[in-house]
Design goal:
The protein is an alpha/beta fold. The strands form 2 sheets. Strands 9, 10, 11, 12, 13, 14, 15, 16 and 17 form a 9-stranded mixed β-sheet that branches. The chain has an 8-stranded mixed β-sheet with strand order 1-2-3-4-5-6-7-8, with helices on one face.
């Protein structure tokens, strides 16, 4: 795997990788764009998570799902993607299936009615239930093989190809000289798999400890960057 060319004005903040013979763009919106197939990939959108907390009488501010939908629209329009693959956990829970959440997603779907959307089911999807029929989302159980890639929710190697997955919400803790720390969501590249950060802005993260040969790409203010792994 190698880093490719300098970013252009249309890809500012993106970072390009060559994996399995294909060029992928890691995007600061916490998504991946497979340009040859006009395909955008995200993981762990967790729509309705805030509504799930409010249903349990936990006071959570509204607007997180709407903000994430707007960010998703922006990256679709920026990349001109014609296809969206969600690598699991589209909806957060059955308790989050509120009328308000459904209306927001339905309006968003109408805005992108020509976009093909595929969901690779994750653990939350099995509990939350299927998306509404009006959203026209093709649902599949993992793994889904589309060589040279394998779409999964949980990051684990697969004999048939290079895995793209989510599930663990990877993040990295950076330490400064004055003992300050900064925690950032990141893309985690291992030998034959790439794990995406959670797309949801209301999702925790799992602090990863890079292994030998791993590569880490945090999502920083300036875009996606690579940091050395010691």
């Amino acid at each position: 795997m190698e880093t490719l060319a300098e970013p252009t004005s249309a890809t500012k903040g993106d970072l390009q990788l060559l994996v399995a013979g294909e060029t992928l763009r890691l995007l600061p919106e916490k998504a991946i764009y497979w340009e040859r197939c006009s395909t955008l990939l995200v993981a762990d959108t967790h729509w309705g998570k805030a509504a799930s907390f409010r249903a349990a009488s936990i006071p959570i501010p509204q607007g997180t799902t709407q903000a994430d939908l707007e960010r998703l629209s922006q990256v679709i329009e920026r990349t001109h993607a014609t296809r969206l693959i969600v690598l699991g956990d589209l909806l957060h829970s059955r308790e989050g299936r509120s009328a308000a959440t459904f209306e927001k997603v339905t309006q968003w779907r109408r805005r992108h009615e020509n976009l093909r959307i595929e969901l690779i089911q994750g653990n939350h999807d099995l509990q939350a239930g299927l998306p509404l029929a009006d959203w026209k989302i093709v649902v599949a159980r993992p793994p889904v093989i589309e060589l040279p890639f394998v779409w999964q929710h949980e990051p684990m190697p697969h004999a048939e190809g290079f895995v793209l997955a989510g599930h663990i919400h990877p993040s990295i803790v950076l330490k400064g000289l004055a003992r300050q720390t900064l925690r950032l969501p990141c893309f985690h590249l291992q030998q034959n798999q790439l794990t995406l950060p959670a797309f949801s802005s209301f999702a925790g993260g799992y602090n990863i400890k890079p292994g030998r040969g791993d590569r880490i790409f945090p999502v920083a203010d300036t875009g996606v960057v690579e940091i050395p792994c010691n």
